[in-house]
């Protein structure tokens, strides 16, 4: 973890961006993905998307695939500015999730509230098990 003492020591000595990047990478090595909850008839997937507006989102469903693409422009730093360390990476990467069932697009829904995108993906009724009577 990047502590205040280590950061202060780094600034006091000759400043090295590579050292800061190395320490930042070590402190954030645990990759966090979306939260997923599974029920009998649906799956809920939640993504943290702070600062993203609904107009900047494209969400598509096709067969068993949920696609999410954030169209958010990178903030400008002005002439010659360059990010060295960022808490959040670029969001311009499409994300895809493949489910072991066909998605019922008509009954699925996506909401965005307080920086959390929640996709409730319903299983297609045709894929649900049907009970047969034993004769």
From TrEMBL:
InterPro entries, alphabetized: A-crystallin/Hsp20_dom, HSP20-like_chaperone
Protein name as catalogued: Hsp20/alpha crystallin family protein
Family: Belongs to the small heat shock protein (HSP20) family.
Domain SHSP: from-to ranges: 22-135
Species per Swiss-Prot/TrEMBL record: Thalassoglobus neptunius
Entries under Gene3D superfamilies matching the protein: 2.60.40.790
